[in-house]
Amino acid sequence: QVQLVESGGGLVQSGGSLRLSCVPSGRTFSNYNMGWFRQAPGKEREFVAAISRASITTYYADSVKGRFTISRDTAKNTVYLQMNSLKPEDTAVYSCAADGGLLTTSARAYDYWGQGTQVTVSS
Fold first, then answer.
1. Model confidence pLDDT, tens digit, residues 63-82
2. Fewest CB atoms within 10 Å of the CB: 26, 34, 113, 117?
3. Are 102 and 118 in contact (CB under 8 A)?
């Protein structure tokens, strides 16, 4: 079992930045690919970014490419999502997830999920 705890959400103005953190516990962090997903009110959950076990490969949704950066620090046992140039349409609950299989953008493949952290971008 893997427990995931996100932090770093909040209220920010359009054009601002936030950095989300996700701390896994319970299993070896390096065994999992990690992903970030988001869900806005009334919308389906959507993929944001993913990073492979050794940080060699990253995937991004087209809507965040060039603005968001996913990274992982094995020493700190933490996954980050740096979000720059935020837009009101980025407003959502952001959740991190752990995947023990192949790196993927599909939420169905992820085995473990955090509770999420709210990000609100005002215009």
1. 999 999 999 998 899 999 99
2. 26
3. no
Helix, strand, coil percentages, rounded to 5, for the chain = 5, 50, 45
Q: CB neighbours (10 Å) of residue 12?
A: 17
Q: How far is CA 15 from CA 48, 81, 86, 88, in A?
A: 18, 16, 5, 9
**Do 105 and 47 touch, CB atoms closer than 8 A?**
yes
How far apart (Å, rounded) are the C-alpha atoms in residues 79 and 14? 24
Element (H, E) at 51: strand 46-51
Q: State in Å, rounded, how far the first CA of the chain is from the last one.
A: 40
Cβ atoms 22, 68 nearer than 8 A: no
Amino acid at the residue 80: Y
Judge contact between 78 and 72, C-beta under 8 A. Answer: yes
Q: Let me know how many helices (H) and strands (E) the chain has, helices first.
A: 0, 11
Structure tokens at 108: 């169905």
